[in-house]
Amino acid sequence: MSTPRITALVTGGNNGIGLAVCQLFSAQPNYHCIMGSRSLEKGQKALESIKSSNSSSAISLVQLDITSDDSIASAVEEVKAKHGHLDVLINNAGVCPVDFSRSVLRDCLDTNAISPALVTQAFAPLLLKSSNARIIYVSSALGSIQKRGDPDYMAYDADFKTYRISKAALNMLAACDAWEYKDKIKVFAFCPGYVITDLAGEREAKEKAGIAKTPDGSARGLLAIAEGKRDAENGLFLHDEKLGELYPW
Ligand SMILES: NC(=O)c1ccc[n+]([C@@H]2O[C@H](COP(=O)([O-])OP(=O)(O)OC[C@H]3O[C@@H](n4cnc5c(N)ncnc54)[C@H](OP(=O)(O)O)[C@@H]3O)[C@@H](O)[C@H]2O)c1
């Protein structure tokens, strides 16, 4: 009898870290990866790029704008109809505005904290049908309240107030969901590291600085969590790939 596939959904799967996750997960023999993309056109291109580098990738696409309740509801119906359940939910989609004003802060909180909360709430019935479900919130060390005051932290001198507030809220969401789904679903917050992507329009600066990593390392870290290698750290704020690599809230 063949092993049942693990079904994983990645929000913001069409670009950056999400795309690397879709590439890695869909190449695993026992996974089916669902790429969530708010633009079907961008998602289709990303899906084709994955298929062209590995034609046996187990991957599909779902339209998912995490700030739209209608889009979330349709994505849930589509995943339910095609798979009947969900094993891994990776709340990865995010933004990093550099300005600070009411509207910028409100939009950032909507994308980075409110929407992941509602995505999880909507997919919870499908996750609860899995015998071994995991939710991963892609957070950032910039959201650590303790690290904000640590002069030894490499981003101590950086501002990013809007983004920090939103990721601190996301961390609390992870802690609340770990409590809410205790014994039913494992829940993690995960920092993917300082990674070269389009986030905050910093790609060029990160490439020049030479200290940022490529997204494939972040994807390996997320696969380790999906595989259960970090289950002992359920409910905590993780980074990197190994057990014991934790950040303070
Ligand atoms: N890069 C880093 O150094 C770093 C460090 C720590 C944490 N992170 C976190 O990692 C996650 C991924 O970021 P990234 O670096 O890969 O950035 P990215 O390349 O800019 O990708 C962000 C993804 O989120 C999607 N997205 C944004 N708003 C969305 C919405 N309303 N609905 C659905 N999708 C939406 C984007 O879709 P579009 O293509 O349609 O815009 C894109 O696919 C974020 O949560 C970020 O905060 C990144």
Automatic annotation (TrEMBL):
- Report a single Gene Ontology molecular function: oxidoreductase activity
Q: Which GO terms fall under biological process for this protein? A: secondary metabolic process
Which InterPro entries is this protein grouped with? Fungal_SecMetab_SDRs, NAD(P)-bd_dom_sf, SDR_fam
Highest taxon above the source species = Eukaryota
- A GO CC term attached to the entry: cytoplasm
Pfam families, alphabetized: adh_short
The family assignment reads: Belongs to the short-chain dehydrogenases/reductases (SDR) family.
**This protein's name:** Short chain dehydrogenase
* Organism expressing this protein natively: Cladophialophora chaetospira
